[in-house]
Amino acid sequence: MPELPEVETIVSDLRPQVQGRQITGVRSLSPEIWELPADVDGCSLILGTRVVAVQRRGKLIVIGLDNGWHLLIHLRMTGQLLLLPPAPAPRYARACFELDQSLALWFCDVRRFGRITVTSDLNTALGRLGPEPLSAQFDASFLARRLHFARRSIKSALLDQSVAAGIGNIYADEALFVARIHPATRACSLTGEQFQELAAAIKATLQCAINNRGTTVANYVDANGNPGHHQYALNVYRREGKPCPICETPIQRSRIAGRSSYFCPRCQPHNEAARAMPPEHRQRSTCQC
DNA sequence: AACCTCACCTGCGGGC
DNA sequence: TGCCCGCAGGTGAGGT
Question: Were both Cys, which of A41, A50, A188, A254 would link to A66 (CB 3.0–4.6 Å)?
């Protein structure tokens, strides 16, 4: 599912091919995916404009247009953004942005969860998002301050886009494994050292996945239709019953924060158990990148 | 205010 | 073979 590394891969692929190009046609094949402000005609607003920027914020794709408006695309679960000829329409095509030189940006989405919107006020549109996890602003002291009173699980907190913009189920589980923190641990019970390890683990996990061009477990492909490689580097996600790469204990799955959560019961004990654990078992796990 | 549950969709795989 | 059911998980609305 597209999380930060997948969206980053798509955006970095699109940028050199789309920036500077004119949008010569807009086709809406599934009107329900558009979320437009009242009295705004999205298609006519976009038509004829030139793309001045292709960026990412959290899991959102932000396409800047030369009329001052921005096209925002969220892939949600199964959305894809593909650079293809303007015809024929690929499977599950929901919208098409035709560009000059016989190229088109196709938005495809089996489940129609994805959303497209336009805005002239980017700050308001992105206002609810927390910091970028790969930015300097996102560190242990930010997490400690932000989660000081949070009694919910750390897994739930990491999925909250106002805590960190761009983390989803896969990378929450992977980062918690690297930081050796059980996903059901209360966020406010983490120690300063654990916040340090978690912030570092989130950055390392996301950067490793970007280097691997994202994780393909079901629908994700890049802008050219190719799968990512990070599924081969996953430590715990969707590995229930398989040996932990550190200690070989079978990976467990349980439902935490309403999501399937994968963890090693030995490397990621609850805080109480961790304090009782002998030091030789507290070995550090590393990214497989 | 903080947090949880559910609806939104469709394809796929397992069980029978 | 074919049917049915559960599951996948990002987000926001609505409830506690």
Answer: A50
